[in-house]
Amino acid sequence: xxxxxxxxxxxxxxxxxxxxxxxxxxxxxxxxxxxxxxxxxxxxxxxxxxxxxxxxxxxxxxxxxxxxxxxxxxxxxxxxxxxxxxxxxxxxxxxxxxxxxxxxxxxxxxxxxxxxxxxxxxxxxxxxxxxxxxxxxxxxxxxxxxxxxxxxxxxxxxxxxxxxxxxxxxxxxxxxxxxxxxxxxxxxxxxxxxxxxxxxxxxxxxxxxxxxxxxxxxxxxxxxxxxxxxxxxxxxxxxxxxxxxxxxxxxxxxxxxxxxxxxxxxxxxxxxxxxxxxxxxxxxxxxx
Amino acid sequence: xxxxxxxxxxxxxxxxxxxxxxxxxxxxxxxxxxxxxxxxxxxxxxxxxxxxxxxxxxxxxxxxxxxxxxxxxxxxxxxxxxxxxxxxxxxxxxxxxxxxxxxxxxxxxxxxxxxxxxxxxxxxxxxxxxxxxxxxxxxxxxxxxxxxxxxxxxxxxxxxxxxxxxxxxxxxxxxxxxxxxxxxxxxxxxxxxxxxxxxxxxxxxxxxxxxxxxxxxxxxxxxxxxxxxxxxxxxxxxxxxxxxxxxxxxxxxxxxxxxxxxxxxxxxxxxxxxxxxxxxxxxxxxxxxxxxxxxxxxxxxxxxxxxxxxxxxxxxxxxxxxxxxxxxxxxxxxxxxxxxxxxxxxxxxxxxxxxxxxxxxxxxxxxxxxxxxxxxxxxxxxxxxxxxxxxxxxxxxxxxxxxxxxxxxxxxxxxxxxxxxxxxxxxxxxxxxxxxxxxxxxxxxxxxxxxxxxxxxxxxxxxxxxxxxxxxxxxxxxxxxxxxxxxxxxxxxxxxxxxxxxxxxxxxxxxxxxxxxxxxxxxxxxxxxxxxxxxxxxxxxxxxxxxxxxxxxxxxxxxxxxxxxxxxxxxxxxxxxxxxxxxxxxxxxxxxxxxxxxxxxxxxxxxx
Lengths: 288, 608
Fold this sequence. Notes:
The complex is a heterodimer.
Chain A: H1 2-16, H2 25-47, H3 79-115, H4 117-131, H5 135-146, H6 150-177, H7 180-188, H8 192-200, H9 205-228, H10 240-246, H11 256-277, H12 281-284
Chain B: E1 3-15, E2 21-33, E3 37-41, H1 48-54, E4 63-72, E5 75-76, H2 82-88, E6 93-96, H3 100-103, H4 110-114, H5 116-120, H6 126-139, H7 158-170, E7 176-180, H8 188-205, E8 208-213, H9 216-222, E9 225-230, E10 233-239, H10 240-245, H11 250-259, E11 280-292, E12 298-310, E13 315-319, H12 326-334, E14 341-346, E15 349-350, H13 360-365, E16 366-369, H14 373-376, H15 383-395, H16 399-412, H17 429-442, E17 447-451, H18 459-476, E18 479-484, H19 487-493, E19 496-501, E20 504-510, H20 521-529, H21 537-540, E21 583-585, E22 591-593, H22 598-604
């Protein structure tokens, strides 16, 4: 009896592992930065000192001052407010698109790997064809044809990035599918969805999470690129990429209006990247 | 100074993820005299490879040699700089790894890799090194010594590659050669040839060696002195004869006992054999991989016309070397690979080819247990979940009842109940294999297909698993189809034995008949290849078994001759290589696939 009770905490300690789940210093800082931007995106409207489109100053491209902490933009709007409200678009659109892309990619990848045969061949070749088209160009064509709106942006970005997710998920699942415990499940007579959900998915979750992070970074960069070209979020709203474009003429004066949104993009993408690199080893290395 | 190597107070520590340091070997002290071979023996985790690597001043990543001294000749290895160590490695001390396939670069020819260490250390001109390599190939009894160097690693067999790895190690005439389990990954029939050539080279060149192995019988043939290790320290160190005849430490004695597994087969209740309907019947099975060709055979035929019959409560052992189709047979019976021809019947009912078309009850009655316990358990699910799933799936057991049954199952395989909360990564190899068995038992099957269940385990652990299998069979009235490459394991647990070669059944009979002459020439080769636990067994071996180890691929799927003809020591030219052999019934009670008649085999002494 005592034996039983005192082994459970021991096991739990090992599973949560004092050593195995420790996060490095860099990882912790990066997580904080990501968390910071997510919170900003969520509570932005209540935080921003001024409305997004309001011209608050006669001076353009001013330096930071007491009234305008990050200065003003090319029209004299408050830069801090615009960055805070822009976080919504950049973080929100990117997370939504990355989530949709990974869900579709991973689901399709696992189904292809387990079913094999002609289904796998058709899906794989079709997706290879999609990968062959340059992302930015394809994105430009779709948005130019349909017109830019939030759902179109999210859909386009997800569509552009799910093939990569599919490739990675399929490669992982093909390996896991050959392992003996999956064969045992099949010999037991388990159904297709049980096998995929319980035997395969949990064993690829580490690499899939890492892939999600990378895809999120690519999407942030592509969204910023599209906005920079004027096809992203439309004025007076603006995501960070659009903010850079609007204020690009201020670069000559070293205005914070162009530097700050660039820093915001850089801090978010670099943090996500480093956070993935510094994921707890136990999670990251859980490869087949 | 007669001692070439002297190791004193060696201590190596490993650092875990959390930064905790644990010694993995400690207080190691031994010497290796010039011209002698010292064996390091122990189970996995005993530190034998760690010690062998420290002789080159090397510690694997995460490990560190903290104290002690390793002297080779006049040099103190541990005090050398990295550059000086690099000069010694491959020149003064060389290393033969367990997996020769991984030790060779597949993109370069064998010769360029064999002479590489001589080139790196600038010992001799290339032409001289190549001539020397050919000489070594000849000494190692490799076929075609002049031509083999120009081939690529995938073009030679595993046994040949291991001998080529030895040539690679010996080219620089090192003072010390480290053999790290060089024959463990090989089949018994191949192992014997590799051992024989190693031994002749060692003797001829008066090589000083350290031989790492877990197999006492192998070591007994090669080593002069044996050091028994356990948990990183020396248990016993004595000359080979003394260890075999008069071991002092209880651990050495348990190793010796495990090398000869107790025979359980006789415990079978013969009364049940009276039943008419066999539990499992396989008729004319043809199976393979790839698309079926115009003749209805698959692209690569792995099993050809295999039949067997298994009575309830009895065990059938299937043996053969790797690639003979034994695992494919298990996969076909389990429904993982639909057969191309033939039938599988269970209790008289013909089973559908694939899992999807079989009834739940049929699936429940046949369970499969795989060799690699590591990959057979889902690493993300706890033992309780792994064992609970078949209970829920087949018997619809849930909640508290399920927890109770999981505990019962753990008890059945002699694991403590608190294992239920662990993940597979937290179990040892033997414990994993027990969980693996318990999962099969959860279904309450009539037949368990055991695919090499003990092959990946240490001898002591394997012997315990065999005992467990025998016990479970008595208690639960199970039948096993026991697949192995190891005849002694099969003989320990099986009533009947079937020998497969290149996808054909070459001999089938009772376990006892495998001990009586005559045998099929291939069975004879298998029987005589099992190392015996005594010194001098290898030297005393009849040379008849020493036929070239032929490529198995060449003889697959040729219906017009005996599959074994290229390796058979008693083949009759003009008969065996042009006609398909008939099935002959021998008076001892077994059937063999051979052109030779019983009296001919007896006269030639096959199996005597």
